[in-house]
């Protein structure tokens, strides 16, 4: 087969940069042992990937989804929420009896503006050294 060019694939994938991402991802899959869908003809993996895209033996949308899935580091899992009526009745609680005695509000120390300014004025600047 003649050389594969970007023009052979651009009608399948509109964006040239996306084409490069998809073809490189497919070439990595081939190098990791994924089966190819066309004859190799002594071509290297990137050329085989481009030929697969040009011949439409692989769907660009499937390649894109697979690329996104391979780049995900954290998969969010939806956990079921507790039933509001059961929580209101006290049937489902995550707090122990010891925690129920503790207040739910968190109190922070309060500092006036004058105390803050006095504390800032009392700070000592760091000594100069030749390292900086």
UniProtKB/TrEMBL annotation:
Gene3D superfamilies attached to this UniProt entry: 3.90.940.10
Official protein name in the record: DNA-directed RNA polymerase subunit omega
One annotated Gene Ontology cellular component of this protein: DNA-directed RNA polymerase complex
Record text on subunit structure and interactions: The RNAP catalytic core consists of 2 alpha, 1 beta, 1 beta' and 1 omega subunit. When a sigma factor is associated with the core the holoenzyme is formed, which can initiate transcription.
Transmembrane segments: none
Protein family per UniProt: Belongs to the RNA polymerase subunit omega family.
Keyword presence, Repressor: no
Chain segments carrying region Disordered: 76-104
Originating species: Allorhizobium taibaishanense
HAMAP family tied to this protein: RNApol_bact_RpoZ
Biological role: Promotes RNA polymerase assembly. Latches the N- and C-terminal regions of the beta' subunit thereby facilitating its interaction with the beta and alpha subunits.
Enzyme Commission code(s) on record: 2.7.7.6
Domain of life: Bacteria
GO biological process: DNA-templated transcription
Catalytic activity: RNA(n) + a ribonucleoside 5'-triphosphate = RNA(n+1) + diphosphate
MF-aspect GO terms: DNA binding; DNA-directed RNA polymerase activity
Group of enzyme by EC: transferase
Keywords assigned: DNA-directed RNA polymerase, Nucleotidyltransferase, Transcription, Transferase
Gene: rpoZ
């Amino acid at each position: 087969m003649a050389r594969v060019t970007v023009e052979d694939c651009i009608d399948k994938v509109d964006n040239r940069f996306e084409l490069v991402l998809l073809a490189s991802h497919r070439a990595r899959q081939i190098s990791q042992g994924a089966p190819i869908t066309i004859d190799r003809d002594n071509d290297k993996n990137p050329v085989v990937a481009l030929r697969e895209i040009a011949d439409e033996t692989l769907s660009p949308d499937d390649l894109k989804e697979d690329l996104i899935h391979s780049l995900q580091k954290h998969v969010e899992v939806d956990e079921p929420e507790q039933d509001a009526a059961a929580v209101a009745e006290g049937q489902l609680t995550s707090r122990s009896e010891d925690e129920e005695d503790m207040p739910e509000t968190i109190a922070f120390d309060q500092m006036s503006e004058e105390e803050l300014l006095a504390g800032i004025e009392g700070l000592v600047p760091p000594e100069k050294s030749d390292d900086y």
